[in-house]
Amino acid sequence: MQSDANASHQHIQPLNAQQQKPPVAQDNLQKITAFMAKHQIAGLPRNFELVYEAMVSRNAEVARDLLALGAQPSQIALDHLGLKHRLVSHCGLADEHVQSEATAALKRLAEQVSFGLIRKQTFTRALESIVKSIREDETRGLSEIMEELDFLDSAARDLIRDEAEIKLKLKTGLAQIEAAERTAEAARAMVLTDRLTELPNRIAFMNRLEDLYDRDSAPFGTAMLLVDIDNFKEINRQFGDEAGNKLLRRLAAVFRKTIKKHDFVARIEGDDFAFLFSDVGATEAQAIAERLRTAVENNLIFATEQGRSQGTLGLSIGYAMTADTTTPSELIAHAQSALATARTTPRHPIAGYGSERPRSLGRNVA
């Protein structure tokens, strides 16, 4: 489970091990439903996710902010809170809102352009009428002609002013649409980003896997690595969730610095991370796993708040190759099997799927 810090308010207590009673899922559902009913929160999926994050996922910031909304929070306030904490369903809501704003801006632009065309057509008809009357009535006096010319001059000035206003409104409207597109893109990015570590999340990882297999030819030469922190639950139990969160953020930073630009790393849940390395064989995958583990041992020393060192952080790593699979789910299953094997050998917790001899594709993994 994700290790976000505990809430401490009496009205939103995280469900710890002592409070949970079998069946846990049913117990959680009852508590969430009771809380929503008590505070008159509408039974919308996005509201359920928000309350779940506060009560079950042990996100102290969400719990604190939810309590600050008062006894009967409005839907607008709840939605703002969900957007603030980048909850998935609320990011989708933001995307819909942005699309609505862009549509409204386009409608306003269309109305302005239509208004400008009407003014131009009116001016053109007036000009044609005056020219026709001058040609057909040669007896008209100079003063009458001058009045009509003054009218045309005034109409032309109005037209020029309207054109300038339309140009400005078009520029403003286009800027609003561009801003809406950027906001929508940011909302989509939030859906794919892990809030704690800022790494890609499980959704982003699954999208990358789907793209890998959604090609004309079967994927070849890509390794998937699953990395798990040894005894992470014990770290949380002894030193608290905030210490665990800090550790996860530091670990993510080490991973970013260790892999190459075209490689991919994601936090898929709790203390589990997944990697994709292209143009490698099993031999290179083994070497990469060794390098990742060494980088963590050399750069990440876990210490308590009192400053006492707890030694280096241990990792278990399992890897699998796309060459041995035909679907993303099969690749994941192979990597999970390898990780389970790695956990059984703490002295050298790195394992590849299968017993075949490692193959090399020649990539330089240094």
From TrEMBL:
SMART domains, alphabetized: GGDEF
Enzyme class: transferase
Pfam families: GGDEF
GO biological process, one term: negative regulation of bacterial-type flagellum-dependent cell motility
Sequence ranges assigned to domain GGDEF in this UniProt record: 220-355
Entries under SUPFAM superfamilies matching the protein: Nucleotide cyclase
Catalytic activity: 2 GTP = 3',3'-c-di-GMP + 2 diphosphate
Any GO MF annotation of the entry: diguanylate cyclase activity
A Gene Ontology cellular-component term: plasma membrane
UniProt region (Disordered), positions on chain: 1-24, 346-366
EC number: 2.7.7.65
The protein's name: diguanylate cyclase
Species of the source: Ciceribacter sichuanensis
